[in-house]
C-alpha cells in the first residue's frame, strides 16, 4: 500500500521550506553586511575625479582585519561618531610625508600620483598649486595619512591629522552605481 499525502500537508511543508530559506537568506545577508561587505554612498566632491558625488560603492570590511591599509588604497573610515569619510591612503605608519611645490614626498622620495596628473597640469597652467605645501611629518604607529584626490576641497589628514587604523571601515572595491560607471579600484 502506498502512502498518499494530502494537498493540505504538502502546502504546509512547502510554506515551511520557503520560510526556512528566507530566514537563512536574511541571516546570511546580515552576516555579510556586518562583517564582510557594505554599501557606501559617496557624499561630496573630495575624491573627484576618482569618485563622484552620489556614486555607490561596495566596501570590503574584512580586509583590514587581515592586513593593514596600503599606500594608494581608497578607504572608508569613521571621521566622527556620526560621519564616515572616504579618502586615499597616502602614507602608512612609520613613513614620513611632505608636500613641496605640488610634489608629494614619502620618506624623502618623490611619489608619482597618476590619478592627479590632469589636475596638476591644469593647476600649473592656471598658475596655482593643486596641493598646498605642508611640512614633513612622521605617521605614528597604528595610523595612516589620508587625502582626498580633490586636494582643494578635502577635509583630510592635513586638517584632521593621521587616522587610526582602528577607525577603518574598509577598502573601496567597486563602484556599483550608476550602473553605466561600474568599475573596480
Textual characterization of the structure:
It is a single chain. The model has no long low-confidence stretch (mean pLDDT 87). This protein is of the alpha+beta class and 185 residues long. The strands form 2 sheets. Strands 1, 2, 3, 4, 9, 10, 11 and 12 form an 8-stranded antiparallel sheet that branches. It has a 4-stranded antiparallel sheet with strand order 7-6-5-8, with no helix packed on it. It has one domain (37-184): Umud Fragment, subunit A, CATH 2.10.109. It has 4 helices and 12 strands; from the N terminus they run αββαβββββαββαβββ. A hairpin with a 2-residue loop joins β6 and β7. Its main location: membrane. Its EC number is 3.4.21.89. It is a single-pass type II membrane protein.
Summarize it:
The protein has 185 residues and is an alpha+beta fold.
CATH class membership: Mainly Beta
Number of contiguous helices: 4
Q: Largest sheet, if any?
A: 8 strands, antiparallel
Helix amount, in percent?
25-40%
Approximately what portion of the residues adopt beta-strand conformation?
Answer: 25-35%
Shape: elongated
Unreliable stretches covering 5 or more consecutive residues = none
CATH superfamily: Umud Fragment, subunit A
The whole-angstrom Rg is 23 Å
CATH topology: Umud Fragment, subunit A
CATH architecture: Ribbon
Subcellular location: Cell membrane; Membrane
InterPro entries: LexA/Signal_pep-like_sf (IPR036286), Pept_S26A_signal_pept_1 (IPR000223), Pept_S26A_signal_pept_1_CS (IPR019758), Pept_S26A_signal_pept_1_Ser-AS (IPR019756), Peptidase_S26 (IPR019533)
Protein name: Signal peptidase I
Organism: Aneurinibacillus soli
